[in-house]
Amino acid sequence: MVIRVKICGITRVEDALTAVSLGANAIGLVFWRQSARYVAPAKAREIVAALPPFISAVGVYVNPDTEWVKETSSTASLNLLQFHGDESPDFCQKFSLPYIKAVRVRAGVDLLQYATRYAGARGLLLDTYVKGEPGGTGHVFDWHLIPPDLPLPLILSGGLHAANISEAIRQARPWAVDVSSGVEAAQGIKDAEKIAAFMQGVRNSESL
């Protein structure tokens, strides 16, 4: 089983190219202004323009308005939208791009119900619930809360890093994994050695 990898919170061209050279399939660009990893549309356009073919550029949003999604997705030439807030299915589907929906996981959250509600999504991204934070907290959730029969492709996120990624994949069996803080030297600045170690952990898990 080949596990796809998205490196999120990219703010620099050099970090995007490093991630891709080490095997990442996608990069994430955060268009939520309150984030320390926020990237302006013009900078995002520069990053995406530097990418080689067959690498996905994903825009990450938290309760955006329609015009902001249209402006940023067009300016940066995005391939996929990722919604991390309380966006409705109708909102997520109103754009010309496919989307994935993030869910903050904790005990009592019905992931099967989420998957049914967002049936138009290309996948569900499961992140850790932390009160007041939409994501990117660096905390792990209990992977046993993931139902084995989730009907949408599972993208696993939340506190992943080189030391736990193989176990995370073994337990959750995701379609893809998403990492940000686990491969950083500082917020928004990626560390090539950490990315390399993370990617090695992913490759090791594929043979389990």
TrEMBL record:
The keyword Ribonucleoprotein does not apply. Keywords: Amino-acid biosynthesis, Aromatic amino acid biosynthesis, Isomerase, Tryptophan biosynthesis. One of its GO terms (molecular function) is phosphoribosylanthranilate isomerase activity. It comes from the Bacteria. Pathway: Amino-acid biosynthesis; L-tryptophan biosynthesis; L-tryptophan from chorismate: step 3/5. Residues 5-200 form the N-(5'phosphoribosyl) anthranilate isomerase (PRAI) domain. It catalyses: N-(5-phospho-beta-D-ribosyl)anthranilate = 1-(2-carboxyphenylamino)-1-deoxy-D-ribulose 5-phosphate. Its EC number is 5.3.1.24. GO terms for biological process: L-tryptophan biosynthetic process. Pfam families: PRAI. PANTHER family: N-(5'-PHOSPHORIBOSYL)ANTHRANILATE ISOMERASE. Belongs to the TrpF family. HAMAP family: PRAI. This is N-(5'-phosphoribosyl)anthranilate isomerase.
